[in-house]
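Sequence in, structure out.
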Amino acid sequence: MATCQFLRDCRRAYHLKKTAEHKKRVLQCKQVAAQCSDHVISTDIIRDRSARKQISHNHLHSFVQKHSVAGVKRVYIKDPLGKLCNAYAIRVQTSDNKQQLSQSLVDAVFSLDNNGNIPHPRYGTHLRAQAESDMIQLAG
């Protein structure tokens, strides 16, 4: 009798542990999906007709506030991240990795909070090639 109860308790504990791990993975997947759906897409920056891309800056600022450096690093690949850094007057070197670029961009977005716009919006037009390749990938 005691052996059966022990086995039952072990199975229940294992099931609870397995369920908790599953819930944790589901929550992580939801966070990643939220970051991916919430980020500023390069086509949106190109289409932004506000003065000095103010709407894009505000959208990027709210994204950075919600998801911090880890979200920026996860969502953007290195090339568009470098172009966004150029738009925020951040000197980019080819040896910089995504972590360094993400941290620089987050610092620049928070430091320009008072201005509320992108300092060099002409770099937004350089994102056009990346936006076109993104559209091709989505279509394919």
